[in-house]
Amino acid sequence: MFCQCKNEQNFDTLEPNTNICPVCTGQPGALPTLSEDVLLLALKLGKALNCKINKESQFDRKSYFYPDLPMGYQITQLYKPTNTNGEVSFFVNNYEEEKKIRILDAHMESDTAKMIHE
């Protein structure tokens, strides 16, 4: 999302640390850059959820200390998300009753890899 690393998943044949870069390992001086494709997907999601698409948004760092998070922090939109105040409508009971689910926000964030223990 914030770097241009490949996402190859040939785990049996790849050498360790093949799909990483200074950004995803959180090295000092490495500046993350948001992917334009990710931004467009977030805007499409906001429209699909009938959200207010904010003119300004920001990214924040949440510090976590997990073995599968080499950066030591997660990049998220905690305080100023891209999309806010949406809702999704749907029908139940054979189209007799309409229900609405309120969407507080839909935001972008980096996520840690999944740890697999065997």
UniProtKB/TrEMBL annotation:
Ranges where the Aspartyl/Glutamyl-tRNA(Gln) amidotransferase subunit B/E catalytic domain occurs: 1-117
Coiled-coil residue windows: none
InterPro entries assigned to the protein according to its UniProt record, in alphabetical order: Asn/Gln-tRNA_amidoTrfase_suB/E, Asn/Gln-tRNA_Trfase_suB/E_cat, Gln_synth/guanido_kin_cat_dom
GO terms, molecular function: ATP binding; glutaminyl-tRNA synthase (glutamine-hydrolyzing) activity; transferase activity
Domain of life per record: Bacteria
Uppermost EC category: ligase
Residues of the signal peptide: none
GO biological process, one term: glutaminyl-tRNAGln biosynthesis via transamidation
Protein name per Swiss-Prot or TrEMBL: Aspartyl/glutamyl-tRNA(Asn/Gln) amidotransferase subunit B
UniProt lineage: Bacteria, candidate division CPR1
